[in-house]
Amino acid sequence: MKLILNSPLDMHLHLRDGEMLEKIARHSAETFAGGVIMPNTVPPIDSISALTQYQDAIKNACGTHEFKAYMTVFFKEYSKKELLGLKEHIVGIKLYPAGATTNSKDGLEDIQSASSTLKLMEEMGIPLLVHGEQAQDFVMDREANFLPIYEKLAQSFPKLMIVMEHITTAGAVKLLDRYENLYATVTLQHLLITLDDVAGGLFAPHLFCKPIAKRDEDRDALLEVALKAHKKLSFGSDSAPHPRHKKECCGCAAGVFSAPIALMRLAQLFEKHDALDNLQAFVSDRAIENYKLKPIQKKVTLIKKDFLVPNDYEGVVPFDAGETLSWSLDSVVIS
Amino acid sequence: MKLILNSPLDMHLHLRDGEMLEKIARHSAETFAGGVIMPNTVPPIDSISALTQYQDAIKNACGTHEFKAYMTVFFKEYSKKELLGLKEHIVGIKLYPAGATTNSKDGLEDIQSASSTLKLMEEMGIPLLVHGEQAQDFVMDREANFLPIYEKLAQSFPKLMIVMEHITTAGAVKLLDRYENLYATVTLQHLLITLDDVAGGLFAPHLFCKPIAKRDEDRDALLEVALKAHKKLSFGSDSAPHPRHKKECCGCAAGVFSAPIALMRLAQLFEKHDALDNLQAFVSDRAIENYKLKPIQKKVTLIKKDFLVPNDYEGVVPFDAGETLSWSLDSVVIS
User: Which end of chain B is more exposed for a tag (fewer CB within 10 A), N or C?
Assistant: First the structure.
């Protein structure tokens, strides 16, 4: 049995820089036609020059694989002139908790102070991509406590496309249908795991990510909208590689590396729930429509055949390392 | 400034066996006059012969330190004859989630089926020590979901002394005042940390334990009753050593090793909250009264002087490793 995915897209991807970028970019580029590249390098990407330099480095690291890096910049106050310059280079602007929205109670005021930039983005049709967590709050409540800020943003800027990135709660899912201009991405791991998988038995460092995996009812709500390919939801892996020694150590870094195996694992999951027909929409069509993309025409064929996930990709341990998946990559054709 | 603690007791202690026992027992025996030794070795302690053998090994491992090992056995169905034989050797019988109470919904029925043993224990005045977690439930709910079973036990066996071991929730604290026959132990770490300290930033393997640390309001409720030396609460470290490679690895084992530094750290905590006067009761008097003990007369003097916690004790990383505490051990005198 074969499954063809046309131009699969990863709408939330960390490619790092330097040596790590060189190692891991091709593992996204092999199976995806493109991805939204998060700007949180050190320093963060926040100008055309930094952006084009990064984009070139990504292209280089992808080698012979055709892959469109949809770029983003870090949210800060931008002038109209700056935004006009940036617009053709970016798919959106990324707001991080370390920026305007951090620190619980004053998050909202901070967003108000950034309202001139948000207003300009709304007018110019530049999406706002948000890591929606109240960073100082209790780890299991951080996303839930941010939801009122999503609502306030959605109400204040009704024409602004706002993407709730890597959502992890049933509460965030509900907002998708409550506000026309709220969209979301969801990762592979949050469709599969809960905090029990991370810390219910032995602690599993390779499942430790931020936002942290939540409860069964959250995972189930996310899975439900993914399986039906909700019109405003896209796949975004949030794939975030760390070298093994930063995961299996005294202070384990947060981040799951799923990019190389994401499509095969999603095929297995969607097949299990009798929803394979919706996978194309979840991993590509919804994003193309909502973000108005014209992706590389890349035909990715998966085949129903055992695939043993490697223990690591050049020192980075992937999601499901050592597990056998029921789908393999068969071929990739560019047209 | 000096602080004298008479016969401090650790009412919940894991001393392991074999090489680990040899290494770590003396780190409890140095500052504590005695401790309640949990029976979950492999295989668990559940007979007089296993118990006396274990007690001898502990005595041996304590070397020149005087230390009373208050023994326990694993809960199973015991006959009256067996209990009569055990009674003089034990301070209580330990019920684990892997036993009668596991597996959420049917936990209660299982306890009913063990009621003949519980009835005998009640008649004979043998305390029941309970690890109160519904092991199959969501990790943050496991203790909360067990509370109704504590209530049922307390109601069904009103003369049975039931100790809620290593409590971690505000809900368990409330039960202390609701049922005369419910008692509790609490660890050092649960007076200090929440899940945020474990997994809010980088994951902290040396703070990872079961029951997992909960929310601020839980920590605060525990601290409140500890600081006032609640009449039915005792200190029980649940100190549970693992070699470093079992903590800083791919699947981190649960357990905090606090025994060697517990008294000094407690002194610092109680002093901070202006409750030093209650420390003697919390670490000794309440236990002596409630468990009817006649401990070794061991006068432990702490002195207000910086104490740099070692990075490890023979390969086991302690709580607060590398931190400087404000109290040191001054002297220990047996009378």
Answer: C
Asked if residue A68 lies in contact with residue A33, where contact means CB atoms within 8 angstroms, the answer is yes
- Specify the pLDDT at position A98: 55
pLDDT for B226 equals 98
Interchain pair B202, A253: CB under 8 A: yes
Q: Residue B324 maps to which CATH number?
A: 3.20.20.140
Q: Is the pLDDT of residue A291 over 70?
A: yes
* Residue A46 bears catalytic tag: no
B52: tokens are 């006396």
Q: What is the pLDDT of residues B111-150, one digit of tens each?
A: 667 899 999 999 999 999 999 999 889 999 999 999 999 9
Q: Catalytic pick from B10, B46, B218, B238?
A: B238
How many angstroms separate the CA atoms of A33 and A155, rounded?
A: 34
Q: If DSSP states are collapsed to H, E and C, what string results for chain A? A: CEEEEECCEEEEECCCCHHHHHHHHHHHHCCCCEEEECCCCCCCCCCHHHHHHHHHHHHHHHCCCCCEEEEEEECCCCCHHHHHHHHCCEEEEEECCCCCCCCHHHHHHHHHHCHHHHHHHHHHCCCEEECCCCCCCCCCCHHHHHHHHHHHHHHHCCCCCEEECCCCCHHHHHHHHHCCCEEEEECCHHHCCCHHHHHCCCECHHHCCCCCCCCHHHHHHHHHHHHCCCCCEEECCCECCCCHHHHCCCCECCCCECHHHHHHHHHHHHHHCCCHHHHHHHHHHHHHHHHCCCCCCEEEEEEEEEEECCCCECCECECCCCCEEEEEEEEEEEC
pLDDT confidence tier of residue B107, bands split at 50, 70 and 90: very low
Total structural domains within chain B: 1
- Tokens representing residue A15 in the block: 């490619």
**What is the rounded distance in angstroms from the CA atom of residue A236 to the CA atom of residue A38?**
11
DSSP notation for B39-94: --SSSPP-SHHHHHHHHHHHHHHHTTS--EEEEEEE-----HHHHHHHHTTEEEEE
B109, burial (CB in 10 Å: exposed 0-12, middle 13-18, buried 19+): exposed
Residues of chain B contacting A252 with CB distance shorter than 8 Å: 202-203, 205
pLDDT over threshold 50, residue A74: yes
Domain that includes residue B101, residue range:
2-334
Determine the residue of chain B that is closest to A215 in CA distance. B138
Partner residue opposite B205 with nearest CB, options A198, A203, A216: A203
CB-CB contact of B317 with B244 (8 Å) = yes
Which of B195, B200, B250 lies at the smallest CB-CB distance from A248?
Answer: B250
* Three-state secondary structure call for residue B256: coil
How far apart are alpha carbons A296 and A68 in whole angstroms? 7
Residue among A212, A188, A189, A211 nearest A283 (CA)? A188
Whether the predicted pLDDT of B100 surpasses 50: no
Alpha helices, H only, B243-309:
244-247, 262-272, 279-280, 286-291
Assess A333–B contact: CB distance below 8 Å, yes or no: no
| Residue A192 C-alpha, separation from nearest chain B C-alpha, in angstroms | 15
Kindly report the nearest CA distance between residue B243 and chain A, in angstroms: 13
A140 touches chain B (CB under 8 A): yes
Whole-number pLDDT of residue A271: 98
